[in-house]
Design goal:
35% of the residues lie in helices and 13% in strands. The protein is an alpha/beta fold. It is globular.
């Protein structure tokens, strides 16, 4: 679990021995993927300001070759950034949550991909 903003819940999670093992790492340190041979889940949370070519390469080819499922959490669907577009275009799934302040991104995706507005899918 790579994060940009520390949360006290991380410590509480690690202290409870009944919880599954999660490695919490501050910043975008993708070397953690090479530490484990078995299938893994990599979550990148609040790291949009740390986008780099290494992360983009991970999305393009690295995740499948290293047996890694990657979740990139972002609060912006459309960011004017070349690397963000590469990551977005190489994502297999987009999960959208309702945001009353920003309805445009959801409506744009629903119109271009499904031919109807968010009102029809809400």
């Amino acid at each position: 679990y790579l994060y940009g903003a520390y949360q006290p819940e991380f410590d509480a999670w690690e202290k409870d021995e009944t919880n599954p093992k999660i490695t919490f790492i501050e910043g975008l340190d993708l070397s953690v993927v090479d530490r484990y041979k078995e299938p893994k889940l990599l979550i990148c949370d609040d790291l949009i300001l740390q986008l780099n070519r290494t992360l983009a390469q991970h999305f393009i080819a690295g995740s499948s070759h290293k047996n890694t499922t990657t979740i990139f959490i972002s609060h912006s669907l459309f960011l004017n950034n070349e690397l963000y577009r590469l990551i977005s275009n190489n994502s297999q799934y987009l999960i959208l949550f309702k945001n009353k302040r920003k309805l445009f991104p959801g409506s744009y995706i629903s119109k271009t991909n499904f031919g109807y507005t968010t009102r029809a899918i809400a």
